[in-house]
Amino acid sequence: MHDSLSVKLSELAGHGSGNADLDTPAAIRQRGTWRTRRRRGGAALLGAGVIAATGTGLTLSGATTPGSTGTQASGQSVPAASVRLTAYQAHVLAETHVTAAQVAALAKSGLTAAQIKEMAASHLTAAQLANPGKEHLSAAQIVAAYTAHLTAAERATLAREDLSVPQIIALARANLTAAQLAALA
Amino acid sequence: MPKADEFDHFYAMTSRRLVGQLFAMTGDLTEAEDAVQEAYIRAWQRWPRIRMYDDREAWIRTVAYRLTINSWRNARSRLSAHLRANHRTEPPELSPTLLTLVSGLRKIPEAQRRAIVLHHLVGLSVEEVAAETGAPAGTVKARLARGRKALAPLVADLDEPSTRIHPVGPSREAPAHA
């Protein structure tokens, strides 16, 4: 009888539901709220960066733009001038033929400098990120990918831009700030 | 009822049951827990809209199921499960009968497994399964027939003509496992 299958499936489901180790509803809500805030915060930062870039004429092609200091900004709240690429950053990116369009695409997808560093540290390729089911990932790479928390849009952009490992490492070395990435987006 | 209270009530009433259903679909309890909780997080992010749905439980189940078949997420889930392994009590082992059933379910295609669980465990009609899975009713019938045939050696008397099975589990949004 079909009932026999239903009964057995019920026993199986009962085992699962009876032994489920779930977070409290408050914890679930907190995680949802945190994600929403993070997304909104990122969008606000992006908007601020675009406004800042409009006034500074940010470019990837110039070796040294007027006002560059050669130092790398690290904070999120930065003055408008710091969205300009330093000579070092422009050199590192040019060395591996990372184009302004590629950086702009990555920035538009919301990829952060921290995520780029995670990928570079474990030599994750764009192909691995795009198709993890088919590509072999080492334990370190899975850890890095997990830590990087890449969204579907970010993975899709990485796959589209098809960046090589040296290019991703170059991006990490360039250490673009949030404001610089936002300005390029 | 305040928004948070309403969500908490919904979570308390349905989460464990949904983990059970996802467990039957995947055969992996940790993966089922992970996917169901992720689906609830997403539901909370869209709660003003989701709360208006007639069948919110079906939305959670569909999202959770999609998460389990996402290969990229599976890699992350495995890591997550590994990291959580040290912090949870190992659940009791399945009986030999249920282990055989899990093994049999894992051998049939995902679409058949999903149809079998939705029809025989959740208690949805063929039309309702078709609506939830986005497949034509005829396809659902074929999946059910093939799935039952594959599972027949494991469960007695499975080869009778398809009829609507009354759900064995609790009705929708009834209190889940205590």
Keywords:
heterodimer, A: 185 residues, mainly alpha, 2 domains, elongated, B: 178 residues, Rna Polymerase Sigma Factor, Chain: A, Arc Repressor Mutant, subunit A, 0% strand, globular, disordered C terminus
Could you describe the 3D structure shown?
The complex is a heterodimer of chains A (185) and B (178). With 185 residues, chain A is an all-alpha fold. Chain A has two domains: 24-60 and 72-85, no CATH class; 96-176, no CATH class. Chain A contains ten helices and no strands. Chain A has helices at residues 2-18, 25-56, 87-95, 100-109, 113-121, 126-130, 139-148, 152-161, 165-174, 178-184. Chain B has 178 residues and is mainly α. Chain B folds into two domains: 1-91, Rna Polymerase Sigma Factor, Chain: A (Orthogonal Bundle), CATH 1.10.1740; 93-178, Arc Repressor Mutant, subunit A (Orthogonal Bundle). Chain B has nine helices and no strands. Chain B starts with a helix and ends in a 27-residue tail after the last helix. Chains A and B meet through helix 1, helix 2 and helix 7 of A and helix 1, helix 2, helix 5, helix 6 and helix 7 of B.
Low-confidence stretches of chain A: 48-81
Assembly state here?
A: heterodimer
Estimate nothing, just give the exact number of structural domains of chain A.
2
Residue-averaged pLDDT of chain A: 70
- Low-confidence sequence ranges of chain B: 157-171, 174-178
Q: What is the element string of chain B, with H for helices and E for strands? A: HHHHHHHHH
How many extended strands of chain B? Answer: 0
